[in-house]
């Protein structure tokens, strides 16, 4: 694939100048960033105005599950815009109903009611509200290694340092340690030990907080930005049992892991659990138009049969977003994208990343499944010291910055967070494209290796 436009550095400079003059970017010190001006994208690639092409191993922000500019989704958005571009959420609209039906068909268990939002953070906000109203309790538990969004409740649920500036300590959130054997807080030596000890820790946390005060436990089925730590066998089933025992609502955040990313429609399928609520966004329509939502169990939905649900959004179930979701789900079904994600993970990405780990001392651990992988980069494999310190910035983060620059030099756009790089391409990436990405990672890891002991 080649860029569809001739290089035009002057146009790129104009785009960047306008950006720097008027766009306020998220999670950034505005005077210290230099955003790339993007000229176009298609499939697994995007390119700039200088004609440089990049294989996107980030899927945007892990949401272009069917790649950029899929013609069937673009056509569906165009057709919907010509027919009914927008309509208020209180009405029954055909494309909204169809999107809800298609999503409900793919959720586990009886999560058959869909509340639409504009993204993942709003989905988490509303899931927590539903849980609190359903139980009459206030506290919500979430893991330290997590990310749930940047709105008020979602940012407090988040475990990573982005929470700190907004954490008032009064949001009714209690954090706990979820399992992660490679950096176990429980001194475990096996997955079975890690699962058992993590569940005991959660039980102890609930006991000391007061079970009757806890409305919900919110977990990413497989934590995304925090490191793609697949839970050990039995852990999620154990959380389900704890929730049932204490009348706690079990919420699984599938904003990143859902819609084929892990080689299943929802990651919960891998673990045989059915939560009470699932939050989703991103891959539901490959991010073509903002859309998220909450899939709701029959029991929680019944709470609001005669009692109004006190929440809503102006653009809930926006027709253009729902049209994109309908088209995306049908594309995924017709083109077997979910099955392909499982296959590419099992036969190319997983084996390829593990082979890189054998040759590069900077790779401490490889973990993931489907099109959802992480490399934990270290200075010392024996001690597992991270390549850069937790939440490093500036000179302390230089080794990861050098690694990222090497990726881009080799035509790969990497997903980097702290001491990790994630391999999270489009779920329909071809075998040849995946191998191209692995080759670029191979070259870039030689730079990371220079910082090992």
End-to-end distance: 40 Å
What value does the average pLDDT take? Answer: 97
- The strand line-up of the biggest sheet is 4-10-9-8-7-5-6
Major sheet: 7 strands, mixed
The share of residues in extended strands comes to: 15-25%
Contiguous runs where pLDDT drops below 50 for at least 5 residues: none
Structural class, judged by helices and strands?
alpha/beta
- Tell me roughly what share of residues is in helical segments: 25-40%
Number of helices: 13
- Bulk shape: globular
Report the radius of gyration as a whole number of Å: 22 Å
The SSE string, one letter per element, is HEEEHHHEHEHEHEHEEEHHHEEEHEEEH
Report the strand count. 16
List its salient traits:
453 residues; alpha/beta; 17% strand; 5-stranded antiparallel beta sheet; 7-stranded mixed beta sheet; 13 helices; 16 strands
Would you give an account of this structure?
The model has no long low-confidence stretch (mean pLDDT 97). The chain is globular, with a radius of gyration of 22 Å. The longest helix is centred in the C-terminal third of the chain and has 23 residues. It has 453 residues and is of the alpha/beta class. It is built from 13 helices and 16 strands. α4 crosses α10, α7 runs parallel beside α8 and α11 runs parallel beside α13. 38% of the residues lie in helices and 17% in strands. A seven-stranded mixed sheet has the order 4-10-9-8-7-5-6, sandwiched between helices. Strands 11, 12, 13, 15 and 16 form a five-stranded antiparallel sheet that branches. Strands 1-2-3-14 form a four-stranded mixed sheet.
């Amino acid at each position: 694939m080649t860029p569809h436009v001739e290089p035009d550095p002057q146009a790129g400079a104009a785009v960047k100048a306008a950006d720097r003059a008027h766009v306020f970017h998220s999670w950034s010190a505005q005077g210290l960033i230099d955003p790339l001006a993007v000229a176009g994208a298609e499939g697994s690639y995007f390119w700039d105005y200088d004609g440089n092409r990049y294989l996107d191993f980030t899927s945007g922000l892990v949401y272009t599950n069917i790649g950029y500019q899929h013609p069937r989704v673009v056509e569906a958005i165009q057709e919907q815009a010509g027919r009914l571009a927008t309509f208020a959420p209180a009405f029954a609209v055909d494309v909204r109903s169809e999107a809800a039906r298609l999503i409900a068909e793919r959720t586990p268990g009886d999560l058959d009611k869909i509340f639409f939002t504009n993204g993942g953070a709003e989905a988490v906000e509303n899931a927590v509200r539903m849980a609190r109203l359903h139980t009459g309790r206030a506290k919500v538990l979430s893991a330290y290694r997590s990310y749930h969004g940047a709105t008020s409740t979602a940012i407090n649920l988040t475990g990573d340092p982005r929470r700190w500036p907004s954490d008032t300590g009064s949001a009714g959130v209690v954090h706990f340690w979820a399992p992660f054997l490679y950096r176990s807080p429980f001194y475990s030596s096996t997955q079975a030990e890690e699962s058992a000890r993590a569940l005991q820790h959660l039980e102890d946390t609930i006991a000391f907080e007061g079970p009757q005060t806890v409305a919900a436990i919110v977990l990413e089925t497989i934590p995304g930005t925090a490191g793609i730590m697949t839970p050990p066998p039995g852990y999620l089933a154990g959380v389900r049992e704890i929730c049932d025992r204490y009348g706690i609502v079990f919420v699984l955040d599938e904003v990143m892991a859902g819609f084929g990313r892990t080689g299943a429609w929802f990651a919960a399928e891998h673990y045989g659990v059915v939560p009470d609520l699932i939050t989703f966004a991103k891959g539901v329509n490959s991010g073509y138009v903002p859309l998220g939502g909450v899939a709701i169990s029959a029991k929680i939905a019944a709470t609001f049969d005669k009692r109004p649900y006190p929440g809503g959004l102006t653009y809930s179930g926006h027709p253009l977003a729902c049209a994109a979701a309908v088209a995306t789900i049908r594309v995924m079904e017709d083109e077997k994208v979910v099955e392909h994600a499982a296959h590419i993970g099992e036969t190319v990405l997983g084996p390829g990343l593990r082979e890189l780990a054998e040759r590069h001392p900077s790779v401490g651990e490889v973990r993931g499944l489907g099109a959802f992988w992480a490399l934990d980069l270290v200075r010392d494999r024996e001690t597992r010291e991270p390549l850069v310190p937790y939440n490093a910035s500036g000179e302390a983060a230089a080794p990861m910055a050098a690694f990222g620059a090497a990726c881009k030099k080799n035509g790969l756009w990497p997903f980097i967070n702290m001491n990790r790089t994630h391999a999270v391409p489009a779920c329909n990436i071809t075998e040849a494209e995946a191998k191209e990405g692995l080759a670029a990672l191979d070259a870039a890891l030689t730079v990371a290796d220079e910082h090992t002991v």
